[in-house]
Amino acid sequence: MESARRTSVWLEGKSPRARKADQPSGLDRERITEAAVRLLDAEGLAKFSMRKLAAELDVTAMSVYWYVDTKDDLLELALDRVVGELAPDPGPGTDWRERLRALATSYRGLFVAHPWMSSLLGHFLNIGPHSLDFARRAQQVVADTGLPLHLQTGAMASVFQFVYGFGTIEGHFRQRCAEAGMSQDEYFAHAMGSIREQPGYARTFEHAERMMEARGGDTVAEMRDRDFRFALEIQIAGIEAMVDRAAESRPDGSD
């Protein structure tokens, strides 16, 4: 119950602690967070533990707990750390469509590079400095579309929850391929070969396979990129259509 009531490492007055005399030299919260990200990338969330992290740092678990009170605190720090990998904003003078494409594409890349983060986003408040910077950028680019204020949260949900879903599936697929010791193309060919052997293949998968062939792309990565770009353009076209619809419904130009 107490764990469920926790708010955020950013709200509980847990500022980084200075090193005690008996703590290992060079160990601090930043180094611990970076090591946690490396371990999460390598082994995933299910296998992550403070004991393994301490072994990765070649310190005792108690040394880690001097700088972070709980595993949840550390996971929240790690999550904000990877959000900080987003590409820089192209700038306020850039058309909102280009800024939205850049932000959405970079956001997708986080889920691919760090498959574990998708499981944590809904678990925390996500109010660390990097997460707040992402939120500000997303809010600003959607505001710059010209959508009325009451429609802007819906537009943000449409775009960034789409990116979340797309990137999560892509990241988990890449992780599964790595665990199988195969490239994405090898795993895809293996899976499709197994599917074609099933009695109900023609009825269930034949049309899907024709669609995959029609969309083009010689590799799984190319096919995913093409799908993502087109799906994102649908999101942008939808925003443009809603901007026009909103303008038509308020001839006086009011919000």
In words, what does this structure look like?
There is one protein chain. By secondary structure, the chain is mainly alpha-helical. It has two domains: 2-83, Orthogonal Bundle (Arc Repressor Mutant, subunit A), CATH 1.10.10; 96-249, Tetracycline Repressor, domain 2. The protein contains twelve helices and no strands. α2 (29-43) packs across α3 (50-57), α2 (29-43) packs across α5 (71-83) and α9 (149-180) runs antiparallel to α12 (220-249). The model has no long low-confidence stretch (mean pLDDT 90).
Topology of helices and strands:
Elements (H helix, E strand, L loop, with lengths): L1 H4 L23 H15 L6 H8 L3 H7 L3 H13 L12 H18 L3 H4 L8 H15 L5 H32 L3 H13 L4 H15 L4 H30 L6
Helix pairs in contact: 2-3, 2-5, 5-8, 6-8, 6-9, 8-9, 9-12
Q: Gist?
A:
By secondary structure, this protein is mainly α.
Main β-sheet description: none
| CATH secondary-structure class of the largest domain | Mainly Alpha
Residue runs with pLDDT of under 50 for 5 or more positions: none
Strand fraction: under 5%
Name the helix and strand elements from N-terminus to C-terminus, one letter apiece: HHHHHHHHHHHH
- The rounded Rg comes to 22 Å
Number of strands: 0
CATH topology value of the largest domain: Tetracycline Repressor, domain 2
CATH architecture term of the largest domain: Orthogonal Bundle
- What is the SS-derived class? mainly alpha
The name of the CATH superfamily of the largest domain reads Tetracycline Repressor, domain 2
Mean pLDDT equals: 90
User: In oligomeric terms, what are we looking at?
Assistant: single chain
Q: Give the count of helical stretches.
A: 12
Distance between the termini: 44 Å
Helix content: 55-70%
The shape, in one word, is flat
Q: How many domains is the backbone divided into?
A: 2
